[in-house]
Amino acid sequence: MFSFPIKIPCRIFICMKYLLFTLLLVSGCAANPYRETNKVYRKNAKTLAKQIRQLPPADSLQPPGKWAGTTNFNLRKPNIVVIHHTAQEACEKTLTTFTRTASQVSAHYVICKDGTVHHMLNDYLRAWHGGNSKWGNLTDINSGSIGIELDNNGFETFTEIQITSLLRVLEKLKNLYGIPKANFIGHSDIAPGRKVDPNRNFPWEKLSENGYGMWYDTTGIVVPPGFDAMQALRIIGYNTKDTAAALYSFKLHFVQTDSSRILTEADKKVIYNLIGKTE
User: Fold this and answer.
1) Which helix (H) or strand (E) is 119 found in, with range?
2) What is the per-residue pLDDT for 57?
């Protein structure tokens, strides 16, 4: 029996090549739905790198032709970590939100309920996660912080595997940048009256036990007469311009079983103990 090569008409062959290319393109997009936004990320990063390399303009304050570039510099380091909840129903929704230019919001990390960590922005770049916020004397929180979003609709408990992933991320950040323990805080801490995340189910005590964020021990604590709790909250970092809002944010973090905006004697003990840890 003889076999002969099958001849495929040129037009059919071209159509088959086009079909194969289309299938590969579709499968590639399905494998990474953020392929196009990743291109935008790389383009923007190149633009920023170009700006960094530029010499001071000719109309700067220095004498013409007298620019002297120092040899002693490096990148600015983040010094605060701000933890959020996404207030959305799925991790993919948050990724979509953070890859839409119109949203004007972002974060460095998004951690899903299944523990998956999406590192969305280089740690040295400025994410748009803090908004109008203040902590201590810092009013531009975004410029010196890392933003971490946890997939949570705002009312759920946080999954164990999600917190495990968060602790791994926090360990990396603390070791890389030397972030002080007291500087691991929540969005509600820096924006009293405006933000309530992460919600009151967030395990702040567990984080503190692992070295991230402050916690208290009121055993044997006696609050001295005349103790100014609101002044102490301000020293800790809270914006106390709206005292009720500041108290509510404080309780979201440290007294999670109390949703009131009233200062109690128990609250004073917590605040007194915390202020002793910040000095």
Assistant:
1) strand 117-119
2) 66
Those residues whose C-beta lies under 8 Å from the C-beta of residue 202, and which sit 6 or more positions away, are 83, 85, 150, 158, 186, 256
| Separation CA 103–CA 112 (nearest Å) | 20
CA distance 24 to 52: 38
Span between the terminal Cα atoms of the chain, in Å? 94
Q: State the Cα–Cα distance between residues 50 and 92, nearest whole angstrom.
A: 32
CATH 3.40.80.10 fits 75-214, yes or no: yes
pLDDT of residue 30: 57
Residue found by looking up tokens 């809002």 in the block: 245
Is 149 known to be catalytic? yes
Domain boundaries, the chain: 75-214, 216-279
By three-state DSSP, how is residue 156 classified? Answer: coil
Longest CA–CA span in the chain (Å) reads 108
pTM for this one? 0.86
Structure tokens at 154: 């705002």
Contact 79, 144 (CB under 8 A): yes
- What dihedral angle (degrees, nearest 10) is formed by the CA atoms of 199, 221, 209, 172? 80
DSSP 41-100: HHHHHHHHHHHHHPPPPTTSSSPTT-----S--------EEEEEE--SS-HHHHHHHHT-
Number of H helices and E strands in the chain, helices first, is 9, 5
Candidate list 36, 89, 149, 171, residue with the active-site label: 149
10-residue averages of pLDDT along the chain (279 residues): 46 49 48 89 92 73 75 92 97 97 97 98 96 96 97 97 98 97 98 97 98 97 96 97 97 97 97 89
Supply the pLDDT for residue 156: 96
Q: Distance between CA atoms of 167 and 171, rounded to whole angstroms?
A: 6
